[in-house]
Amino acid sequence: MRKKIVAGNWKMNKNFSEGLTLASEVVNIVNDELNDDVTVIMCSPFIHLAQVAKNAQESDKVFVGAQNMSEHASGAYTGDISAEMIKSVGAEYVILGHSERREYHNETNEQLAKRVDLALEIGLNPIFCCGESLEIRESGKEVSYVCNQLTESLFHLTEDEIQKIVIAYEPIWAIGTGKTASSQQAQDMHKAIRDFLAGQFGQEVADKISILYGGSAKPDNAKELFAQPDVDGGLIGGASLKARDFVEIAKSF
Ligand code: PGA
């Protein structure tokens, strides 16, 4: 009923030639081994994006995305990259609001709402990241924290628009730490997110939105995570840098 998605977030890793090698390895293994019902996305650094998008054309299961974009359409914003530029090289997705962007670049929910609008206007599908810190989880306020991120960045959208969003729940305490959320913790939060979306957009719409888990997902824990009814795939950091590991995760449904 909803898309199964495994998206790789390369972050700031791989020089140009290493990135192209990784992309073509992923495309080859996916073409040989992956079922048709899984969508694989590679979110490379901007520099690699145009060429990675060309590689991805060799597979109807592999798509590409950027890791960030400007909230301005164009103009005097030195060093920034626009939604239109990303779209023009053949990318179809863009990660928005990753916790590393929120933390190191002070991205706010309000700014992210603007980026979401711009991405949709240009025809990019946002992979919208949400998730709480360890401190918030320990205080027991993780659900209201995540719901507030969704409210402030996504709840102005129409029913049609929200269905173009992929949500990635990434507890900050599990990112790059080797400490995965348990499959039950992931399921509980994904269910809370879906219920919250249903409250705003209706159950039928909420049931169509893919919610990915991110945070130390690996080949050996993906199966259990993806077996949860509200976990529709993963946003994969470290393990997306090795083609074999990444595709093994995509084969874990
Ligand atoms: P990780 O990163 O898989 O390396 O924990 C996930 C992410 O930050 O998207």
Automatic annotation (TrEMBL):
Gene Ontology annotations for the cellular component aspect, listed alphabetically: cytosol
Annotated residues for binding of substrate: 9-11, 176, 216, 237-238
Compartments in which it is found: Cytoplasm
Any GO BP annotation: glycerol catabolic process
Main location: cytoplasm
HAMAP family documented for this protein: TIM_B
Function statement: Involved in the gluconeogenesis. Catalyzes stereospecifically the conversion of dihydroxyacetone phosphate (DHAP) to D-glyceraldehyde-3-phosphate (G3P).
Name under which the protein is recorded: Triosephosphate isomerase
Gene assigned in the entry: tpiA
